[in-house]
Amino acid sequence: MNFTEQIFEINGLKYAVKTHGSGKPLFALHGFSEDSSTWDLLDVSGYQIFAIDLIGHGRSSKPRTLLPYRLENILTALHQLFCQYADGKPFSLLGYSMGGGWRYAIVLLFH
Fold it and tell me: Could you give the C-alpha distances from 59 to 33, 53, 81, in angstroms and in order?
């Protein structure tokens, strides 16, 4: 698959995002101690995959202070990232392990 990698900055923190495919946005959140490569083989017809290196993982920022790792800060930053990439269109979320829990929390908080 051909991936495009971008760095997205929110509140001074960098998030690495790999994309491939075309169609409706599908944001994929990996598990603890993994990175966006978890989703390298994910190919869903009709969707553009956005595989995110979550904070502290992969090529995203690894802050040395605890504040950026507070759940409310992580969820707010991810929601901002989703809204920016989706450009007001509906989007889907996929996650497992830690990413699955965060996906569920984002849905409860923002939708």
Answer: 12, 6, 16
